[in-house]
Amino acid sequence: MGAQLTFSTDSREDGVVLLVASGEIDLSNVDAFGGALADATRNGTAIVDLRGVEYLDSGGIHALFTYADKIRIRTGPLLMPVLTVSGLAELVDVEQ
């Protein structure tokens, strides 16, 4: 069994929501991740911090694509190739 997905949100002073995820995003929890993205982007732009994510499957990528026009992504070197190959890095501002 992989690392369980956990996430937290925080609102910044500028109104942007910060969604921090850690663990693995896969078929078992992609619905919860999608719900967290929906909540975070409800009133505008959100920063999605994936630096603590160890695994991101196609369902997680699809969830990110769904909100591509409302998110910015923070990631580490582990997920950067996935974001690049999927084309998401061309649509979303990605900070490494």
Question: What attributes does this structure have?
Answer:
five-stranded mixed sheet; 96 residues; 5 strands; alpha/beta; globular; single chain; 32% helix; Transcription Regulator spoIIAA; 34% strand
Protein architecture, described:
This protein has one domain: 2-Layer Sandwich (Transcription Regulator spoIIAA), CATH 3.30.750. 32% of the residues lie in helices and 34% in strands. It has four helices and five strands, in the order ββαβαβααβ. The protein has a five-stranded mixed β-sheet. β2 (17-25), α1 and β3 (46-56) form a beta-alpha-beta unit. The model has no long low-confidence stretch (mean pLDDT 95).
Task: Present the secondary structure layout.
Blueprint: E1 6-11, E2 17-25, H1 30-40, E3 46-56, H2 58-66, E4 71-74, H3 80-86, H4 88-91, E5 93-95
Parallel strand pairs: 2-3, 3-4, 4-5
Antiparallel strand pairs: 1-2
Helix pairs in contact: 1-2
